[in-house]
Amino acid sequence: MAILTLKNAGFSFGDAVVFKDANLKISKGETLCILGPNGCGKTTLIDCILGINTLDKGELTLDNHQMKNLSVKKIAQKMAYVPQKHVRHFSFSVLDVLLMGRAPYTSFYESPKTSDRDMACDILNTMGLFHLKDRDYTHLSGGETQLVMIMRALIQDTPIIIMDEPTAHLDFKHELIVLETIARLVKERNLTLIMASHFPNHAFYLENEGIPIQVAFMNRQRIHLAGTPSVALTEENLASFYKVKTSVIDLKLSGKGHIKHIIPIQTLDNKIGQ
Amino acid sequence: MKKNAQTGRIRFYLIILGSPLVLIFLSIFLGRYPISVSTIFSLLLSPFTGLAVDPTDLSIILYVRLPRVLLGAIVGGSLAVSGAAFQGLFRNPLVSSGMLGVSSGAGFGAALALIVCNDFFYVYLFSFGFGLFAVFLCFFVGRMAASTQAITLVLGGVIVGSIFSALISFLKYVADPFDELPAIVFWLMGSLSRAEYSQILTAGVPITLGVVGLMIIRWRINVLAMGDKEAQSLGIKVNITRIFIIVCATLATAGAVCVSGVIGWVGLVVPHMGRMMIGNNNKDLMPVTFCIGACFLVIVDDISRLISSSEMPLGILTALIGGPFFIYLLKQTKGREW
Amino acid sequence: MKNHFFPAWLSCLFFFTFFSLPALATASDPVTVVDSTGHTLTIEQHPNRIACLYAFCGHVIAMLDRGKDMVAIVNGLKKDRLLHKLIPHIKQVPVPARGGIISIEALLKTKPDIVFLKPETAAIQAEIKKLTRFNLPYFVAGYHCMEEQMGIIEMMGTVIGRKQKAFAYTRYYKSIIDRVKKKTSHIPENKRVRLYHSVNEPRRTDAPGTIEADWTNAAGVNNVSVGRSLQGKGNKNFADIEQILLWNPDVIIVNEDGVDQKILTDKKWSSIKAVQNTKVFAIPVGISRWGHPGGLETPLAILWTAKTVYPELFKEMDLKKEMVWFYKTFFNLNLDDDMINNILDNKGMRHHS
Fold it and tell me: What is the mean pLDDT of chain B?
C-alpha cells in the first residue's frame, strides 16, 4: 500500500527543466534513498514532495489524497522535514525549537500546551538528550543541531519524515550518530523515510541495519527507481552513474551480519559536474 | 526546585506587567505645574470624599497628565511590539518599523493628508497606507538581491526610508508656511503634548487591532523565524501569516504615528531589552516588550516634560537614549546573540 | 502688479474696518475684539499677567509700556537688547512654548490673564484646545499687510488698556504712508525704481502677499520679487540667482550686516545694475531690523527706503529728526548722535546672538 506516489511528475524553473516523467512509489514503513550528484535537483524534488514547489506536470498522492487538495497544515501532519542545514537567527532554547514541531496541531491563536511540553520532554528523554532542554540552540554543535531537527520532526508525529542530506556538514562521528539515530527511529516507529544523499554508502548502511529501503537515482532531469541497494548499487551501475570505478565489498562481521560498503577506486573521467 | 522556578517566573511576570500601571500612576504626580502630592490624592479620592477641589488642578490631572501618560504608554507599547514583530518576521534583529521605512512612510502619509484634506480619518488612512506601502517596498528591494536577506533588507529600509524622508521634505517645501507647515513639523519631531482622550480612542482602535493581532499570532512568529521552508513544512501558511503580521504591525505603528508623530528607536531598542530579560521566545517576549515599551516612553515623556519649560521633542530623547544603548548591546553580544 | 495688489488691498481695508470697529468701545466696559482667526475675545478687565508666545506681540506690549507685566515669553525675546533695558529680569521669564508647541502646565504655572499667540500655533486645533480647556483667554496676532498689522496693534492696545498709545502709533504709521504716497503716486509704474530686498541672506527675499511686499510698495518702488513665485524653505523664500540677474534691479536693500559687501564683491552679482552703480544699501537696524515683518519700525523703513531711492523727492525730509521723535514717543528712548549713526549704519541696537 503506497503512502506516497509520484506519477509522471515534472518541474521546471522557467525554461530550466529540473526533472520530468518522474514516477516514484513509497510504501508505509519503507525508506527511499534519493542518490545523485550535487546540483542534480534533489532539493527541488524534496521541495515538490513537501508542497513548497508545485509540480508543473503529473500528480503527487499523499496517503490516498491528491497533494493539491491538502492544506499546508494537513500536509504537515503527514510529513515532517529535516533540513540540510538549519540557519539559526534567534537564540531559542532547545525546548522552544522542539515545540515548534507541534505547530500543525496548534490553531493560529494558540501556543503549545502542557501536553506538548511533556511530549517534547519524553522525546528528549528517550534520545538521552534531556540535558539539552534549556540550552540555547544557537550554541549547539552541528551534530547536536541536526539531532534537535530530527527530534522536532519526531514531535511532529507524522508517518513520513523527509531528510535533505541530513549528515552534510557533520564530522565523522556525528555523521554516524545521526545515521544510527535515523536507523533506530525508523525501525522503532515504523517510519516512512525519504532521504536525499550524495553518499551511496548511506543506502547500504540503512540496508545493513535491516531497513526496507529502495534507491532512486537522480540525474539529468530523470529519476530512476532502481530497487534495493544490493540490486541497485552494483559496480557497473556506479560506474555508469557516477563515472567512478568502485569496488563493492561484503564483510561478514560477528554480531552485525553482512556489511556492504562501496570503496571508491578512481574516477573514470576527470570532468567536474555531469 | 521546579516549583521555585515557577513562582519566580510568576513574580517576574507580575513585576513586568504591573510596572506600566505603576509608572502611569506615578507620572500623574509629575509636571511643571505645581500640585502637591496630598492635593493629588485628595483630588483622586474626591469622588468618594465629596470634598471640593480646585478646577484647574482637576483639569491638569484629568485632561492634561492622565491622557498624555496613557497615550504615551499605548504608543510606546505598540511601537515596541511592532518592532519585535518585524524583527521576528524578517529574522533580523536590526529591523524595526523605523528601519523598514514604515515610520517615515506613515509620517509622509500623515503629512500628505494634512495638506490634502486635514481630516483625522484621512491622516490615519494615509499614514497606514503609506506605512504598509513602505514595508512592502523594503521587502521587495531586499528580495531583489536575495543573497543575504538580513543585510539587503536593512539596505532596502535605508533606501525606502530616505525616499520617504525626501518626500516629506518636499511636502514641507510646498506646504503653506503658516497653516500646514507647523502641523507637519510637529508630526516629524514626535510629541505627546497634544494628547486627548479622543485621540486615545481613535488611535486606540488601530493600535488595539494591531497589537491584539500580533499577540494572537505571536507564537507563530517563532516558527516563521525557522525560515520559510521549515515554517511551511511545520504547517504554517507562510505568505498569509507574513502579510497578517505586517498588516498588524503596520496598523500598530501607523496608529501611534498618527497621534504622536514619528518617534524613532523605540521599536528597535525596546525589543532587545526584552530579549535580554526574557529571551527570544515571542510567546513571552511580545507581552514583555509591550510593557517595557510602555514604561520606556512614559519615562522618556516624563523627562521631556520636566527637563525644560518648553518641551523637548521625544525623538531627540529616544535617540539619545537608544543610540548608546544599542552600542552597549553590540559590545555586550558582539552581534553573536543574533 | 496692479491686478495682484488690488484685491489684497481691498481685503486689508475690509479687515481693518471690520475688526477695528469693536475696538472703539470704551475701556471701562467689557471689551470685545476679534482676532486674526475670527475668534472673539471678551475681556472684563485689563489683564495683569500677560503671556506673549509671539515675539511680535512682545515688542508691541513693550512699546505700549506693559513689558514688565509679561509673565511668559518666547526665546527670541530674550535676545532683544531693548527689552533687556525695559525688563531687567527678562532672562528669568519662563518660556513655555517652543516650535509652536505649548507646554500647557508650564504656561498655567505662570498664571496668565491673557495669552498672545502667533498664527502658526493657532492654526493647530490641538494647541487652541490646550488653552480653552483651562478657559485661558487668547488672542491670535496674524497679519499679512500693514492694515492688518495696525488693526492687530490697535486691538492689542485695547485689550491691555493702552488703547491711546496704540492708536497714536497707528495714526503715525498711516500718516507716513500717506506722506510718501503723496510724493510718489505720480510716478508711473514703468518709471518706478526696481528694488530687490535681501532678507538675512543674499538670495532670501520677499514673497507676494507678505507685509514686506506691502510696505515696499508703499515706499513707491517696484519690488521685483513680489510678483513671482519663489522657492520656499520653511517660511523663508529664496530667489534663484539667474532670476535675480533677469530682474536686474536698480537698487538692492539688505537688512543683514555684511550682506551688502557680499553682494558688491560677489562676481555672480556683478552684472546687476544696482551693483554696477553701487546702489546696494544696508537697511537701518534699531530695535529690530527696519521693515522686518515682526518689527515695529516699518514706518521708518518706508521713509528711509523712499528717501534712499528717490533722494530728490524727499530732499527736505529730515530722517534723523523723525527717528528721534519716533523712538522718544513710542519707546521712550532718547537717541544721541552716536545711536542714530549706529542705527543708520545697520549696527543697530539689536543684541547679536
Answer: 87
Hey, is A9 helix, strand or coil?
A: strand
Give the one of B218, B223, B233 whose C-beta lies nearest to A80's C-beta.
B233
Name the residue range of residue B111's domain. 33-333
Each domain of chain C, given as residue ranges in start order, spans: 8-165, 187-345
Task: Pick from C77, C103, C128 the residue to mutate for testing the B interface (most B CBs within 10 Å).
Answer: C103
**Sheet strands (E) in chain A:** 2-13, 16-27, 31-35, 57-62, 65-66, 79-82, 160-164, 192-197, 213-219, 222-225, 244-253, 257-267
User: Is the minimum CB–CB distance between A19 and chain B shorter than 8 Å?
Assistant: no
Within 13 Å and on the Cβ side, how many CA atoms surround A252? 0
Q: How many distinct structural domains can be found in chain B?
A: 1
Whether the Cβ atoms of residue A242 and residue A264 lie closer than 8 Å to each other: no
DSSP 8-class letter at C296? S
Q: Which class would CATH give C187-345?
A: alpha beta
CATH class of C8-165: alpha beta
Measured N-to-C along each axis, helices B282-307 and B314-333 cross at an angle, to the nearest 10 degrees, of: 130
User: Could you tell me the three cell numbers for C270?
Assistant: 556683478
Interface test with B, best of A74, A89, A96, A158 (most B CBs within 10 A): A89
Whole-number Cα distances in Å, C158 to B38, C30, C66, C153: 42, 11, 13, 9
For position A194, what pLDDT does the model report? 96
Contact C287/C300 with Cβ under 8 angstroms? no
What are the C-alpha distances in Å from B233 to residues A31, A79, A171, B63?
19, 8, 27, 52
Q: Quote the DSSP letter at residue C26.
A: -
Residue B192 amino acid letter = L
Inspect the structure and tell me whether chains B and C have 3 or more CB pairs less than 8 Å apart: yes
Contact at 8 Å (CB) between B79 and B263? yes
CATH code, B112 = 1.10.3470.10
Q: Give residue-wise pLDDT tens across range A15-48.
A: 899 999 999 999 999 999 999 888 889 999 999 9
* Residue C282 pLDDT: 94
Residues of A in contact with B6 (CB under 8 A): none
Q: What is the pLDDT of residue C217?
A: 92
Say whether C187-345 and C8-165 share the same fold.
yes
Contacts of B172 in chain C (CB under 8 A): 234
User: How far B33 CA lies from chain C's nearest CA (Å)?
Assistant: 5
